[in-house]
Specification:
Radius of gyration: 15 Å
CATH architecture: Orthogonal Bundle
Order of helices and strands: HHHHHHHHH
Largest sheet: none
Structural class: mainly alpha
CATH topology: TerB-like
CATH superfamily: TerB-like
Number of helices: 9
Helix content: over 70%
Distance between the termini: 36 Å
Number of domains: 1
Number of strands: 0
Length: about 160
């Protein structure tokens, strides 16, 4: 499976712009994308109902934040879903992000997570619990999580 993931990234992940995007070719950057997407999928499935609204929100967020076209976003989501299903816990995803993302990047991810759980109009108790658990594992302070929640509710973005 790992070979298929690496092959996918090596052969088909290309930057959207004409400029050379070093991070898109960086293995660590690819693993971070996969980890972030797997966490988003874990949240989407937290209430046992991955709704169409959540699916659309996830795909749009992946496309926007990682600069992918629809086909590459769908493939990343497929690979992340496979990894999510095989994972024993969230540690393999959260530890990578915790150690590599800046506080600002973690806040953006937290905002995307809040947007995802709000996408279907209903914040379930399991979604709320899991999001808070993930934020603790990411070492994201409660105040930052609260700010990300506010931004997600009103549709602001912490970055331009």
């Amino acid at each position: 499976m790992l070979k298929a993931i690496r092959q996918y990234f090596d052969q088909s992940m290309r930057p959207v712009s004409e400029e050379v995007d070093i991070e898109a070719r960086d293995t660590n950057g690819q693993e971070l994308r996969l980890a972030a997407c797997a966490l988003l999928l874990e949240l989407a499935w937290a209430d046992d109902d991955f709704s169409e609204l959540e699916r659309e929100h996830l795909e749009n967020a992946v496309r926007r934040h990682f600069g992918l076209d629809r086909a590459h976003a769908e493939r990343l989501i497929e690979l992340a879903e496979e990894e999510r299903r095989r994972a024993h816990d969230l540690w393999q995803f959260t530890s990578l992000i915790r150690n590599q993302y800046s506080t600002g990047q973690k806040m953006v991810l937290a905002e995307v997570m809040w947007g995802l759980v709000f996408a279907d109009g209903d914040l379930g108790a399991r979604e709320d619990y899991l999001l808070r658990k993930i934020s603790i594992l990411l070492d994201l302070k409660v105040a930052y999580l609260s700010e990300a929640r506010k931004r997600a509710r009103i549709g602001e973005s912490p970055i331009d």
